[in-house]
Design brief:
By secondary structure, the chain is mainly α. It has a single domain, classed as Glycosyltransferase. It is about 55% helix and about 5% strand. The protein has 14 helices and 9 strands. The strands form 4 sheets. It has a 3-stranded antiparallel β-sheet with strand order 2-1-9. A two-stranded antiparallel ribbon has the order 3-4. A two-stranded antiparallel sheet has the order 5-6. Strand 1 and strand 2 form a beta hairpin. Helix 6 runs parallel beside helix 8.
Length: about 400
């Protein structure tokens, strides 16, 4: 598939609300019906990937730097294939590239900023700014972020993840428009909290989730720039509620759906939200809770870096597949603890878990739709985003590898 290069002249940091509301740029779209030949190619790709996972198994084929470069190229491709400036949800073996995903585009902007800074890649910076402009453009008038698949009503988690991107865009560009959009998002998050400050509505299945600690982290990030008592109050209320859900390191109500063992993806979301928030607030109780969660998760790490894709609230592994996204996210948490405490076991755990992800990443295939991308599950038919390459898996892989390389002893 040919990808039209981005017009770098459009990606300046100076923005106005009028320019953001202008007609979106034209890009080659890949969202159309398949021809018979294309359908046959899709089936061939599906057959090849499932056969590889069934018969060949994981195998590392390159250096960390080579795997990182391939992942960055894939994430750029996910940005290029959409008709707007969002990042595609990802590539599905069942139906090609999917439309832009607002929630994850928010924190992918931070990844492009980080990549630009560490690798001196100006193209990544331009992409981060372009994504951030688009997020302002699609923000609801009340400040929230919605998911068109589920209607126009704002969603707490999605709004929090976009808030992370908007705050970073303001820090990088000092454009007031990004701060204005971030403040609107934060005000909405305060408004929809209940009388105790908790997020019980505008959430998945209208139930509270411990992984909304990531939203509290986003609220505190903004509060460091533009403080209000209500923002900190709501953030703390949700963090304290999360602490109440912790049992022997694990969390109740940490899954997408109640009664189901949570993916390592949402477990790592919860742990990192507590850790980042604790560091911002200087509150040891949140840091300690994160350490407990990180340590019990480490017990499930095999010598080859495999972590079971789901772990129930009693700490028992569920399923025989790996949620590769969770591997990457746990690596980030362990690396943060290595940086804080200097314990080599955390660095080794991160290195092992990322090596397993690398062994599942195809950087040699001629198929640009999947080369360098990270699958949702290993094997690819595992429960988490089955038969797909979700953009956030590659995003967290890049984040983790950048950190691993920066901190290597």
């Amino acid at each position: 598939m040919q990808i039209r290069p981005r017009d770098s002249a459009r990606l300046t940091t100076a923005v106005t609300r009028e320019s953001l509301m202008a007609a979106p740029k034209e890009k080659e779209t890949v969202f159309r019906k398949f021809t018979i030949a294309e359908s046959l190619l899709l089936f061939k790709g599906f057959a090849i990937k499932t056969a590889q996972d069934l018969f060949l198994g994981p195998q590392v084929v390159g250096t960390k730097e080579e795997h990182l470069t391939a992942a960055i190229s894939w994430l750029k491709r996910a940005h290029d294939v959409t008709p707007d400036d969002g990042v595609s949800w990802g590539y599905s073996l069942k139906g090609r590239w999917r439309p832009s995903y607002r929630e994850t585009s928010g924190y992918i902007a931070t990844t492009f900023f980080d990549t630009s800074e560490q690798l001196k890649d100006d193209d990544c910076r331009q992409r981060a700014v372009a994504i951030s402009k688009w997020l302002v453009q699609i923000q609801n008038s009340d400040g929230s972020i919605s998911d068109p698949r589920y209607g126009s009503e704002g969603i707490v988690f999605d709004t929090g993840q976009v808030l992370l991107g908007l705050v970073r865009a303001f820090e990088e560009t000092e454009e007031p428009l990004f701060l204005e959009a971030a403040e609107k998002a934060a005000d909405w998050l305060v408004e929809v909290a209940d009388t105790q400050g908790r997020w019980l509505q505008n959430t998945h299945c209208d139930t509270p989730h411990v992984y909304n600690t990531r939203v509290a982290w986003a609220l505190l990030k903004l509060n460091a720039l533009s403080p209000t008592l209500d923002r900190e109050r709501v953030a703390r209320a949700n963090l304290d509620w999360a602490l109440d859900q912790q049992r022997h390191g694990w969390f109740e109500q940490c899954a997408f759906i109640q009664g189901v063992a949570p993916f390592t993806h949402t477990i790592a979301y919860a742990i990192r939200g507590l850790l980042e928030s604790g560091l911002l607030l200087g509150e040891q109780k949140y840091i300690d809770a994160a350490v407990r969660g990180a340590d019990v998760s480490l017990k499930h790490l095999r010598s080859d870096g495999f972590i079971p894709g789901q772990i129930d609230t009693d700490g028992k592994a569920q399923g025989r597949y790996c949620c590769l996204t969770g591997n990457c996210q746990m690596a980030i948490v362990w690396l943060m603890l290595f940086e804080l405490q200097g314990e080599q076991r955390y660095y080794q755990a991160a290195d092992d878990s990322l090596r397993y992800v690398m062994s599942c990443q195809d950087i040699l295939t001629s198929d640009l739709n999947i080369r360098g991308g990270i699958k949702g599950s290993q094997p690819i038919w595992g429960k988490y985003t089955r038969l797909s390459y979700p953009n956030w898996a590659t995003k967290f892989f890049i984040d983790a590898l950048l950190m691993l390389l920066r901190l290597q002893p």
